[in-house]
Amino acid sequence: MQGMTRALGVDIGTTNVKVALVEADGTPVATASRPLTFTLAGDTAEQDTESVWRTLGDAISEVTAGQTGVDTVGICSQYSSIVPLDANARPVAPMLMWQDLRGTDHSFEILARHEQAFMTFVDRHGIPPIGSGLSLGHILHYQLDRPDVHAQTAAYVEAMDAVTARLTGRITANQHTSFMVQCCDNRTLGATQYDDDLVQLSGVDATRLPELVRVDEAIDTVLPEIGDALGLARGATVYAGANDTATVAVGTGAFRPGRAGLAIGTTSVLVDEVAGFRVDLEHQILSMPGPYPDRYVVCAENGLGGKVLEHMLHNVVFAADELADHSSATPFAKLDDALRATGPGAGGVLFLPWLRGASAPQSSSAMRGGFVHMSLDTTRRDLVRAVCEGVAHNLRALLPHVEAFSGEPIEEIAFVGGAARSAAWCQVLADVLDRPIVALAQPDGAVARATALLALERAGALTRADLDQEPRSGSTTYEPDPQSRSLYADRHVQFEAAYAALLPISEALG
After folding, report:
1. Using N-to-C axis directions, what is the helix angle for 159-168 and 49-64, rounded to 10°?
2. Contacts of residue 504, Cβ cutoff 8 Å, sequence gap at least 6
3. At 471, is the pLDDT very low, low, confident or very high (cuts 50, 70, 90)?
4. Is there a contact between 267 and 311 (Cβ–Cβ < 8 Å)?
């Protein structure tokens, strides 16, 4: 595309924002990241959207400093997190994060009001209206429990659409970004209208739903005063947003046959392509409209991933409490050493990673985890390795169901996210999953770079074939160790048995 020189990709996560600047041919130029904070208390989880905006602006300014010609912008974010915006695209209340369970009661009221609601939502959208952190519940909470907020709200949007609106002044969503709002008929792709029946059944105020645009639409140019402040070119174009699950699929080449993508950040997400609309409620897997107008993405959220290890390191290994101050500014620095100091099987200890409920392939908000089969010989390095193996076993439980859902074998897994920096954890994943793990170069910024590449494809500078190419430059492949195959196969049987055995205990303990 003539005149196009550089693209900015933005990845807004739960605990950080990352931005990447790339050339029109996809060559990386610069990356930056900043931490985010949010308030988690019981069933509530909120984030200050204005703080996110300021933090994002600081990161963008870092990568654009001294640069010119940044004229293409793509935005992705975590999702199922609703922001109420006024007509000027300013937040009028906090973002309700995906961990926030408010509105669940109103979601179940939909089922009580309408006998046909459950199957109508499943047949048309894919997800029944059950709340539990879904965006539809968040909207109903603000609409019904906070009429003061609702009165000020022009539109309820996800995080990526809130940033897009702030950049351009145009408030939009698309069939992909509004997935968790549950008001689109997803049996076919390309929807630019909400489904009247789903809106009516839900009870959502349709006047507060944002304009629905194509998933690949050029939303508008960046407002001049914002572009100047952020170092973007005058007339820079912002393209329709995407969620981070789908952008992982783009960044890992998961739209190619035989390959899946894996991201382990706060959560673990396994992504793949699926040919059409389908639902596997038993295993919490469904097809989500993707960032392309003609492709679906497998939606299979595996639950907490890197957050589990972070919790272990911060609160057990490097804890600061009444017993002692063992705090460390670099708790992950010795992770590889610890993993290599104990062999496969973690000295017999099995870790169950369900610290805030279980997701696909067996969903339960009540389920909790812990260590199993500890002994007097267990060391803290065994516990750390067991945590990494437990996260891997959780993914192994999901893997065959994703293959059955898509109808295609997964022959290798491309890996991004902070955990992909650990060579020892990559090997653990390869061994437990019994699949080659391809750790991509600079995995921390991979999703932000993929978002920039997706924007370039939408602008015509790159083709979809360019994006689907195997991203092997600078990557490292970890092959499964055949000597540990039978060990992990046996342990995985017990991992799944532990879920079945402990679920009623978790439910009883509340």
Report:
1. 60
2. none
3. low
4. no
